[in-house]
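[Solved] Which block belongs to which protein?

Original post:
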Amino acid sequence: MGVSAIAIAVHFSAVWAVPRVMMWKLFDSLRQSADGAPGPQTPVLPPLADATARRVVMPNPDLLYGLCVLDLERGPVIVRADPKLSTYWSIALYSSNSDNFFVLNDREAGQRPVALRISATADQPESIVAPSKKVLLLMRVLVPDRAHGMDVLEAARSSLKCSTS
C-alpha cells in the first residue's frame, strides 16, 4: 500500500509540475537569450531551424517561428500582426502550464490584419482571457520554398508586435 501511495503521489506531482517547469524554463531561456535586447512583450524571431536547432525538440525546418512572452501582471497585452500571406501561418497562445488556449490561422483571418487583446481577467468582452498571468505566443509561418520568397515570409513574421498599449 505504501509503494502505491508513493507512486500515485509521484505521478500526480509529475503531471502537475513538469508542464509548469518546462514553461518556466522556456520563459527564462527566452529572457536570457534576449539579454540586452527583448524583454516581455518583445517578439523573438529565431533563425529558420536546421539540423543543429534543438531549443525545441524536433523543430519543423519548414516553419519560421516568432515568440512573445506576454506578461499580463500589469494588464492586458495587445498583439498585432499583418502577415499578408496566402500560405499557412498561425498564432497560438499557451498558458504557463503549457495548455494551448487560443489559435488563429490564415483560414480564419484571411488577408485581414490581426489585432488581439489578451488579458488575465474578463474585464472587457473583446478580450481573450488567459488562464495564467504569463503566456507564450507562438507564431508559425510556413516556408514552402527556401530558395524563393524568404523576404516576404520574414516580413510576415516581423509584422508580429506585442505591446501593453
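(Second protein starts here: sequence line, then its C-alpha cells.)
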Amino acid sequence: MRVRRLAAGTADLLDPGSSLWSKAETGTFELIPTPLAMQPSAYVRASREQRPFGRVREVEVRVLHDGEHVAFLLAWDDPDRDVEPPGDERFPDGAALLFPLASDAPLVTMGAEGRAVNAWHWRADRPERARNNVAAGLGTTRVTQDASIATSARWDHGRWRVVFRRTLASTAPAGEAVRMKPGDAVLVAFAVWDGSNGERGGLKSFSPAWHTITLEG
C-alpha cells in the first residue's frame, strides 16, 4: 500500500473529515477474533466460550505523510457509539495500530522475548491522544511515557473514523517506538474493539498478518 506524500498542515492530517483523505490509497483489511485459547486469563477464556467476540470483521485504512508526520485513518462499521469509561459489562470502543520493533516479531502473540512490538492504542473514552504500548509476548503489554501520538475521532451513522498522527522520527527511547522516514517500507497490523460487546484487552478483532505500507520519498 503506497503512502502519498502531501504538502499538508498537521491540523489537516488530524481531521477525519478532511478532503485530503480522498487523495490517499484505500486498503480494506479482514479482521478476525483473537484466538480464545491464547487469552492469558482463565476467567476470560471461560466467560467468553459461549459469547462470540471480534464482532468487527473489516477495517478501511488510508495513510498519508507530509515528510515530518504520518497519519493513519481507520474506518469501520459499529452501530453503537461506546464512549464511556470501562464499567460492568460495557467498555469503550477502541482501535490500534501494531508495528514490529524487530523484523521477525510475531504478530499473533504480540511479539516475543527479544522481539517486541509497538502499539498505538486509541480508546473512545480518551479520544484525543493514543497510548504508546510495547509488548514482548502475551500479557506483557506496558504503557510508555511517549505522549506524541495525537488522535481525532468521529462517529456518524454507525461508522467510526479515527485518525492517528505522529512524527515520523519518534523521540521515544530506542526499543519503545517504531521509527519511519520517507522511502521506508513499514510493516503494520490493525485491531478494533467493540465495547458494547464486552471487548477489551485481548478480546478484539485483528488483522492476522502484517501488511506493508511504503512511504513516498
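Accepted answer:
You had them paired correctly. Confirming on the second one: The first helix runs from residue 10 to 13.
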